[in-house]
Recover the amino acids of this structure.
C-alpha cells in the first residue's frame, strides 16, 4: 500500500479513456486490496482485462489471466465482486472464468454476485453480430463478435431477457423461444438449435441462483455501511455509444454515465474517477484513428507493447499519443487523475510526437468532431518531444525517470488538464510508479 492508494475515496471508478485496452485490469488488480467490493458496470465479454500475478508454485514466473466478465479484483481474497445491471452477461463465459479461478485455487464461492437486472447474452446474439457485420460489408465495425450490439439492441427494444427471468425457467424458456422465432423472421433461419443452449442454461441457472442480488440496493447499502467500492469500467471513452467515434463504437456508455446507470450508484456518490491512458494510442477494429502510424514505428510499438487484442487476438493498430482525445475524455468523464500506462514501451524511440489539436479545412477545431467525414480528413497539430534510451521498467520513483520521460509525462498533464498520479512501466503488479 502507498500514500496515493490510501488517499483514494470511498467510491473509486476506473475508466478507459482512449479506444480500450489501456490497462484497466492491471490498475484494478493493483489497488483492489483497498476495496471490499469491485463492480463491473457496463460492456460484456468484448472486454479483455489482463492481469499478471506471481506463480505461487514458481515465484520467479508470472501467470497471465485475461478476464472478460469477472471483475479484475478477484485475486484479492478479501473482495466481493459484483456484475452490475449495465453489463450484458454471457453465462457460459462467466462459468468458464469461475472454473479457471477455482482450478488455480482461487475461492469464488460467496464472492461473486450478479445483478438481477443484468441482461443475458445468448448464442443467437453472437450469430446475429456476425450476420450484421457481414451485411455491413466494407462498413463493418470490426466488432469482437461477442454479441454485444445485438444484446444491447434487445435491451433497448424491450425484448431483452434478464437474470431474474432465470429464476422461473418455464417463463424464461418461453421468452427465449419467442425471441429466437422473431430473429428467424428478421434474419432468415440461421440454424441455431435452442435445445442445447437451454439445457446448458438450466444447469447454470441452478449454479448462479445464490449469486443473484438486487445489486443497486446491495451497493448503496455497502456505501451506507462505510464499505469501499471500486468500479471497473470496460472498453474506452472513444468507444462510447454517444461520445465515441460513432458508428465505430461499442453499444453501451463506456464513459462515467454508464457507471451510474450500470450500477445504480448516484453521481454524487462517486469520488475519484481515474482515467487510464496509454502513453501512446491503440485501437482494435475499424474506424477513424487520427494519430495512427502506418510505418515501421507503428509495428515496433505493436511488438514492444505486445499490442494484440486480449479478446480476439487481432493486432492492435498503434499511433502517437493524442492529447486532443485525452482532453476530450478527461472532460466528459471528469477524471480526477490519470494512470498513464506503458511508458516503458516508448523507451528507445529517438523523438516522440504528441497530437495537440486538429484542423479541418485550415480551421482549428475547438471540440472533438462528430462527423466521420471531418475526422477522417483532419490535419493534426503535433509537437515533438525528445525520447529516452534507458530501460525504465525497474524505476519505482518518479524522480528516477530520465528527464525526457518526466518532461513527456508533464507535457501530457498540461495538454489534457489532469494530473498523472501513477505511471505503468511494465506488466507486473509492482511495475508501477505512484507520485
Ligand atoms: P484493459 O482492457 O484496459 O484491461 O487492457 P488489456 O489487458 O486489454 O491490455 C493492456 C495490456 O498491456 C495487457 O497485456 C497488460 O498486461 C499490459 N500492460 C498494462 N500496463 C502496462 C505497462 O505499464 N507496461 C507494459 N509494458 N504493459 C502493460
Ligand atoms: P477492454 O475493456 C478494445 C471495440 C471492438 C470494435 C468495437 C465494437 O478490453 O478495453 P463490440 O464487440 O463491442 O460490438 O465491438 O469496439 N471494443 C474494444 N476494443 N478493448 C475493448 O474492451 C473493447 N470492447 C469493444 O474492437 O472495434
Ligand atoms: Mg482489453
Amino acid at each position: 500500500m502507498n500514500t496515493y492508494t490510501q488517499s483514494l475515496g470511498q467510491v473509486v471508478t476506473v475508466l478507459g479513456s482512449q479506444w480500450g485496452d489501456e490497462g484497466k485490469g492491471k490498475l484494478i488488480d493493483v489497488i483492489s486490496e483497498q476495496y471490499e467490493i469491485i463492480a463491473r458496470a457496463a460492456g460484456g465479454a468484448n472486454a479483455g482485462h489482463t492481469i499478471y500475478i506471481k506463480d505461487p508454485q514458481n515465484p520467479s514466473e508470472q501467470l497471465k489471466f485475461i478476464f472478460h466478465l469477472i471483475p479484475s479484483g478477484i485475486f484479492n481474497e478479501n473482495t466481493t465482486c459484483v456484475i452490475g445491471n449495465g453489463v450484458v452477461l454471457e453465462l457460459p463465459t462467466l462459468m468458464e472464468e469461475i472454473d479457471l479461478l477455482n482450478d488455480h485455487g482461487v475461492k469464488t464461492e460467496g464472492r461473486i454476485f450478479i445483478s438481477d437486472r443484468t441482461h443475458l447474452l445468448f448464442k443467437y446474439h453472437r450469430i446475429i453480430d456476425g450476420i450484421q457485420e457481414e451485411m455491413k460489408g466494407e462498413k463493418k465495425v470490426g466488432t469482437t463478435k461477442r454479441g454485444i450490439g445485438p444484446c444491447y439492441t434487445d435491451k433497448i427494444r424491450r425484448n431483452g431477457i434478464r437474470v431474474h427471468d432465470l429464476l422461473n425457467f418455464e417463463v424464461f424458456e418461453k421468452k427465449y423461444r419467442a425471441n429466437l422465432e422473431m430473429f428467424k423472421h428478421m434474419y432468415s433461419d440461421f440454424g441455431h438449435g435452442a435445445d442445447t443452449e437451454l439445457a446448458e442454461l438450466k444447469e447454470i441457472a441452478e449454479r448462479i441462483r445464490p449469486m443473484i442480488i438486487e445489486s443497486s440496493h446491495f451497493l448503496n447499502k455497502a456505501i451506507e455501511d462505510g464499505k469501499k467500492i471500486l468500479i471497473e469500467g470496460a472498453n474506452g471513452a472513444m468507444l462510447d455509444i454517444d461520445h465515441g467515434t460513432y458508428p465505430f463504437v461499442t453499444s453501451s456508455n463506456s464513459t462515467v454515465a454508464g457507471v451510474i446507470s450500470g450500477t445504480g450508484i448516484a453521481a454524487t456518490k462517486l469520488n475519484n474517477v481515474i482515467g487510464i491512458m496509454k502513453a501512446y494510442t491503440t485501437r482494435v477494429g475499424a474506424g477513424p484513428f487520427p494519430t495512427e502510424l502506418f510505418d515501421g514505428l507503428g509495428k515496433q510499438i505493436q511488438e514492444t507493447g505486445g499490442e494484440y487484442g486480449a479478446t480476439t487476438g487481432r493486432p492492435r493498430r498503434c499511433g502517437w499519443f493524442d492529447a486532443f482525445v485525452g482532453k476530450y475524455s478527461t472532460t466528459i468523464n471528469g477524471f480526477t487523475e490519470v494512470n498513464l500506462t506503458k511508458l516503458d514501451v516508448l523507451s528507445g524511440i529517438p523523438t516522440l510526437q504528441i497530437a495537440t489539436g486538429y484542423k479541418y479545412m485550415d480551421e482549428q477545431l475547438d471540440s472533438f468532431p462528430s462527423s466521420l467525414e471531418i475526422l477522417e480528413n483532419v490535419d493534426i497539430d503535433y509537437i515533438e518531444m525528445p525520447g529516452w534510451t534507458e530501460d525504465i521498467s525497474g524505476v519505482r520513483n518518479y524522480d528516477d525517470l530520465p528527464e525526457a520521460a518526466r518532461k513527456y509525462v508533464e507535457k501530457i498533464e498540461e495538454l489534457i488538464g489532469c494530473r498523472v498520479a501513477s505511471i505503468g512501466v511494465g506488466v507486473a503488479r509492482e511495475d508501477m510508479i505512484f507520485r
Observations:
- The longest strand covers residues 58-67.
- The longest helix spans residues 169-187.
- The pocket of magnesium ion (ligand 3) is lined by residues 20-21, 47-49, 310 (CB under 6 Å).
- The mean pLDDT is 97.
